[in-house]
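Q: I have 543 residues here and want to know how they pack in 3D. Can you give me a structure?
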Amino acid sequence: MAAHDQENAALLPQTRPLGAQISHMLKDRGVEVIFGIPGVHNQEMYRGIEEAGITHVLARHEQGAGFMADGYARATGKPGIAYVITGPGLCNIMTPMGQAYSDSVPMLVISSCLDETAAQRGQLHQMKDQRAAAATVCDWSEEARTAPAAYALVDRAFTEFQTKSPSPKHIQVPIAQLEADAPPAPAPAPPTRLQTIDQLDVRAAAAQLTRAKRPLFVFGGGAVRAGGAGGPARTVLQRAGAASFTSYAGRGIVAADAPLHFGAYLSHASSAAIAQQADVVFLIGTDLAEVDLWRAEFGQTCPTVHVNLDPEVLARAAAHDTTHQADASVWLTELAAALEGRVASTEWSADKVAASKALWHGEVDAEYPGIIRICDALRSCLPEAAMIYSDMTQFAYAAKDVWQMDCPGHWHHPYGFGTLGYALPAAIGGAIGRPEMPTMAIMGDYGFHYTMQELGVAVELGLPLPIFLWDNGKLGAIEASMIGAQIAPNAVIARNPDFCKLAEAFGAAAAAPKTLDEMQSVVRAAFAAEGPTLIYVTPDIAS
């Protein structure tokens, strides 16, 4: 009888504390890495991580954990997962959540929460309404009060990552529930398929392109999978004879040397005149946000075709526009097929495109003297397929305009939320997501102060991560803005440490090249090193 009972018990699903079951569920959904920091309130979530075969990356601050999850998601296309504690842990990761929300990055933050907050005050890590606080910086924030609810919310998040515009989600689980035994999560459901593309709509768009004399495409970050050599975006442009722009996030979708490609110069005021020349505009995977244009409108007066997964973006279309809720890559593939065999005949001039780009290049050089020369030297020494994470710094502001990308989705920046301190932890997440592939961080001196402690993670993991630290000795962009507004710039300079010694104290390598040739040698060596290298650069290097 005892043997029979043991056999039956072996066939029953294994119960574990819910915190452990969540980790097993995530593993079954394809999760390989979790970023976070354990604490007494979320320790049950850590019970199942190693048992499930998931790698955990210990950040030095929850903000770093969130940016690592963001960087991992951007590098891999998979959701970035983070575990944090109640109260301060959740508050600390809200800045990365806001960044991921503004830049459409798939991230799932799972936190513990107190079992009760209304009748008792003074509890450890207590907030008045933690769930509502998180809801202000993500797509949705929900509390799972039972094991089935936790499993349902996790699956809801993963389904939406596949079918909607990517966006961060937050699930909180009461501590008592995390500790209570629960059955395993249900098996993963089959992948959800996106809606079928309407062929009549695609053929109508193809006919519209064929009739146009000055068709113009703008590709954003939502069209990255459609770009690069052999991608449908380039095929459509060639068959339609269309001109193009990309947003900063869309760089590399179109070949930088394509004769009718205007580049990523949307933010320059005179790009509005180009938009006004178009007789049809296609906005593919972009919402042309403020941080893309730095003006209210793109400038087109012609009919516009919008292709986007986000219904909120499509709802802003004008009355005479056409909207398609679709994955950009799938839709462009269908459009390319509909254009096969058509002979393009448009009025765009390659010479005029080149003249516009030369004008804008000169404007960048005038606004950021010397930086373009450094950008060119840096770009020429990077290995193929290098992925770059940049921070809010003047060097990156100039580079985003002029740096020519060979392939899409390889330069990541905190575009919308615009937080300082993004690049280093995000690059760590990206390097973890692409092992053996080159990854680089570009930071300013002030932004480095925000998350410099995460350098310890890069050292601990032995990541060959070059960290290009641009030190102009001030908050240069803020100083320029204040002077332009006739405000005395009396709060833009902070005393910096010896950054090279600081890096060495963490166990990283450090170098301060004095010439561009020396800088290139240091960068090449950093990609081949056994750990991170801080490369300290000042504006004097361009002189």
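Q: Anything worth noting?
A: DSSP finds 24 helices and 19 strands in the chain. The first strand starts at residue 16 and ends at 17.
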